[in-house]
Structures are given as structure tokens and as C-alpha cells.
Amino acid sequence: MKIDDNFYMKLAIDEAWKYQLLTYPNPAVGCVIVKDGRLLAIEAHKEAGMPHAEINALKSAYLIENPNSILKTKNNSQEIHNFLIENHDGYFNDCEIFVTLEPCNHIGKTPSCANLLKVLKPKRVIIGHEDINKIASGGVQTLESANIEVSLRCMEKEAYNLLYPFIKWSNGTFIFYKMAQTLNGCIDGTISSKMSQLYVHTLRDKVDLMLIGGNTVRIDKPTLDARYIGGRAPDIMIYSKNKIFDNAIPLFKVANREVFISDDLFKLLDYKFVMVEGVYKLMNILKEKIDYIVLIVSPKIRNGINALNEIDIDFEIVHENYLGEEKIIYLKRK
Amino acid sequence: MKIDDNFYMKLAIDEAWKYQLLTYPNPAVGCVIVKDGRLLAIEAHKEAGMPHAEINALKSAYLIENPNSILKTKNNSQEIHNFLIENHDGYFNDCEIFVTLEPCNHIGKTPSCANLLKVLKPKRVIIGHEDINKIASGGVQTLESANIEVSLRCMEKEAYNLLYPFIKWSNGTFIFYKMAQTLNGCIDGTISSKMSQLYVHTLRDKVDLMLIGGNTVRIDKPTLDARYIGGRAPDIMIYSKNKIFDNAIPLFKVANREVFISDDLFKLLDYKFVMVEGVYKLMNILKEKIDYIVLIVSPKIRNGINALNEIDIDFEIVHENYLGEEKIIYLKRK
């Protein structure tokens, strides 16, 4: 197997995917640092407001040769920036820094990564995809102005797939369909493990809106909150022509959430980050609008309902990962 | 992400899985070499008679700092051994060598890896799983006798899953069920890409026996050879009580293959490496005997027959990989 720029960029991309969708409204980004051929750090941006991928990776890389540094205790972006600017002492001059997205060039919730790299002066910065955010872009120019070698478009297609949700929610709406099934496509009964359920609650905590079918609400009487992780319950749109629902259904009783009943799917476009759950008959209507399907597959065969058996769609697998013993697969329509 | 022994061993394990089942009768083995912290090689054993994983990795690692060495032209195990013994000049003394299986200690089709390592004297050898083959084992003792530090049982469970087919076919019979389906479990029509079909022919070329159902033979009239790769056609057992078949069915006309018709599944145990194809109703009868299911999943949803809908089985995913745009998933019954 070839150990080249693509190899290290792939490590950064895979690390970033672990936090895909969870960084909203920020992009999922990964960063790998190789110092004089030695792999020192594989890190990612984990959540909005927390340090960017580059900052996590620079911190990890610094601590490899300075394991007792006070840096260990610093978790805030600004503090890590300040520490590294004062104490780097050329540590990064023989480093190659692989980052899936052009380092940000503006000071937002966290300081600018491009300005920090300009000071740290690594040997080379390898970038997967340019920034599409006009406010944050310009990172390449900042690096080049400091005579840092920059290599662009390393694994650009994979970096684009990673960035795609961010591109959509930055300029409009990102809609994903969450499904859980057994290996043979069965969807009824309890399919998912506790760990996958926790993950679904983590997603619910992040999205602006959940779309759910009226019949599912009437039959399953769900709560659709994020209680497993103590998270925020998303607003709900119930897709239904018939506007009459039993008010005792738990989802209506959750505090600090809006619920509305509508059969106008254009309303989804008023939101930036939308999750669709459990309306299989809507798949055909929605399929032109859905950006990703997030499919959780439990490795078992069961005799049950195969809800998708009326549909014909071709996908590209943009990524897959483990959720404990189950798989999570990110699919994009071809 | 932690970059430790487990990280490097996982790279070796993943590389080895690319050749899982294709190394028969040898085990699938991977090897990673890290020299003074620098990742130099990720290699695997690819096919019986070809160099072991360690040899491929030692060659790759040597060529990193000696890219114009004549070693580049050597592909034969004995030649690579001889070259390295004469020319290593201490190159591997600061190397850590991660190998998924204890290095072999006997001279078979290829020279002993443990003896070669004894001469090259790496700093440390990290081993996933001990050798279960009495003839080849003893590698650890050979290394330790040369004062090479040995770390055992790194990612042992994953290394065991990788080794499991070899353990089974060395001491009896390894039986796997090959299936192809869409995401939603549909099995009819043309499911797999050309690349997956090539892979299936590569498997057929390796196995001792294929088991196929009588009805499949009567209806589909298959050839069941390995013509896409110019490979050897495996012997065939047709599972059927009714022994009467149309002799014009192509599978009977393939040269140099035995075909027999039987409803005695114990006959499978006369073979070491058995592949089962297309007898879904046998899954329930065979499930106690099947070691792995090799499931090829095409990322599309189709309206069709879901052959597995009458079965209840829980699996562990032991590995998964891409076959072009499709997935190949290795499942083991829980």
C-alpha cells in the first residue's frame, strides 16, 4: 500500500466523518500532522464552539514531544493559540499538515487557523477542499504570503463529500433521511442497539427540524426528543393532510419546541438542517430533495416488514463507519 | 485519535483483509513497518507461493531509503531474503515490525521469516496472534533468542478473526456462504457490478468445492466456473434429492472438474475450503455449519425478492471493505 499524501489525507477524512453532522453549523473537518515523516496527530473538529481540527491536531502533535507541557490542560481555542504562538520554538517547521478543508482565515468564535499556521511556519500544508464560505476563505493566500508551501485538492472528491452537508446548509437546506434496518432490510420491531439510539438522539439535538409522517405519530405515539443525551428537542413538522391529532401524544408535551402539522413540503426549505424519520412512503416524493440517507444497519437477519420494497433508487456510498457493533452508512443519490 | 501499537496493527489487519480467502491454503497476514517513528510500509501476503507479508513489508521499507536498489527487481522470496541478509547494514535496527500473525519459523515454499528477522535485528516485533500451525510455530522463541523485544497479543481478537478461516481449513473445513443483495435485501435480477463478479470468480478459482442448490441449477442453468479471470473451475456438489438433471446445463460441460449430486451435507466435510452459493432455503439447515457469510451489498434499493425473510440469525461484522462502489461484508454467526 502506498504511503503518500492521499494516505494521510484519508486518515484526516475518516477522523472527520466520526463527527459528521454533529459539527453543525460548522463543517466537519479533519487534520493530520506528520513531523519529519513521523505521524504525530489525527484529529477532527468535534462540535461548534470547540477547537477547529487544526488546533486539536497542533495540540496533540506538540504534546507528543512535550508530554508534560502545561498545554495539556488547555482546551479553549484562544488559549491553545496563545500558547503555541509563544512556545512553538520552531517545533512545526519540519511538519506537514494535512487538513480536509482550507484553514479558516477569519476570527469567529475561535481565532483564525491560517494566521496561527503563518506564525508556526510548517514545511507544507496539504488541503483537501477549498473553503466555500466567503467570510472564512483566503487561508491559502495567508499561508503563501508566509512562504509556506501549499498543496491543493488532495483527495478533493472525498473532501467534497465530507464538506457537502456544510455546503448545503450554508446556502440553503441540508435534508437527510435517517433509517434503521436489519441486513435484509427489515424495519419493524426494535432494530437498533442502545448505542445507535444514543447517536440518533445526538442528531436530534443538532437539527433545526424533524419531519415525521402523520400515521407514524398516530400509531407509534413518539416523543421525538433527545432525552438519552439530555439534549434539546428539535422542532417537528408532522406531514399530514388531516390536522387532527390526539393532544396526549407525548411529542406535543415536550417543552421549548414548536410542532406544526402540514402537507406542504416546501416548508422544509425554511430550515437549514432537517432530519426525516419514519415516513417511508414519503421516500419516493422526497427523494429529489434528500441530500443524504443515514442508514443504520444492524447485523442480523429478521423476518419482518421491508418498507423500501416499492422504491428504485441508486446510491453512492459516501462513507461508512461503525456504531458499536452496527454500521452507519452515508448514502447520496446518484 | 491515539497513534499507538493498536493503530499500526489495525493498518496491518486491514491490509491483510484485502486478500482474505485468496491466500488459501495459507493464512491472510499483514505487516507494517515503522522506523524510528516513521511509517514505511503496509503490506500483506497476497497468494500462496508469493512472499509472506513480512517479506513484502521489509522490501518496501528498505526501498523507501534506497529507492534505486536492485532489490526493486526482486520478487521471489528467496531472492529478497538473500538480498536483505547481505545488504541490510543495520537498516532495520530502529524498526518496529507489526505483524498480524507470529512470523513463521520453518522453511516451506518460502524461507523462514523468523530467521530472517533474527538476522535483521529490528528493535521490536509486535504480534497480533500466535501461530496455530505446529510446523510453522516457534517464531517468538527464535526472535527472543536473538534478544529482539517481542510484544504479543496486540489486537488479538481482530487478529483472530483475520486468522479464523485458516484455523478452520487447517484443522477441518472452512465453509462460507456467498450472497449478493441490494441495500434493502433484494436478491433477484443482476445485483452485482462487474468488479464484484470478478471477485466471485477469483473466489471460485480458490475453493475446493462449491455447493449449489438443485433448483438453482435447473432454473438458472449456470456454468459456475472462473472464466472471467481465466481461473480453475471448482468441483461442484449439487444439493438435490432428485438426481436427474439435463446434461446440457453448462456446469456439466466444464473440463477438469468433478460434479456430484447429493443430499448428504456431511460430504462437505471431505473438503477444506467450501463456498456455498444461491441455496437460500439451505441457510437455515446450514447455519450451524457456516463459518462466514460473505455478503456483497450493492448500494441501491430495488423492488424484488427478499430471500432471507424467513430466517432469524444474529451476526458479528468481522470486517468490511469496498469492492469498487459496492461493499463486501464478512459476517460470523454470534
Q: How would you sum up this structure, described in words?
A:
2 copies of one chain form a homodimer. By secondary structure, chain A is an alpha/beta fold. Chain A folds into 2 domains: 5-170, Cytidine Deaminase, domain 2 (3-Layer(aba) Sandwich); 174-333, Dihydrofolate Reductase, subunit A (3-Layer(aba) Sandwich), CATH 3.40.430.10. Chain A is 28% helix and 25% strand. Chain A has 9 helices and 14 strands. The two termini of chain A are 29 Å apart. The mean pLDDT of chain A is 93. The A-B interface holds A 1, 3, 15, 36-43, 181, 183-186, 295, 299-304, 306, 308-317, 320, 322, 325, 327, 331 and B 1, 3, 15, 36-43, 181, 183-186, 295, 299-304, 306, 308-317, 320, 322, 325, 327, 331.
Strand segment tally of chain A: 14
Overall domain count of chain A: 2
Strand content of chain A: 25-35%
CATH topology grouping of the largest domain in chain A: Cytidine Deaminase, domain 2
Question: How widely separated are the two ends of chain A?
Answer: 29 Å
| Number of alpha- plus pi-helical segments of chain A | 9
Q: How would you describe this structure in keywords?
A:
334 residues; alpha/beta; 2 domains; 9 helices; 14 strands; 28% helix; elongated
Give a summary of the structure in a few sentences.
Helix content of chain A is 28%, strand content 25%. Chain A has helices at residues 5-17, 53-65, 77-87, 113-120, 139-145, 156-171, 194-206, 214-220, 283-286; strands spanning 30-35, 38-44, 95-101, 124-129, 149-151, 174-182, 209-213, 235-239, 259-262, 273-277, 292-298, 300-301, 313-323, 326-333.
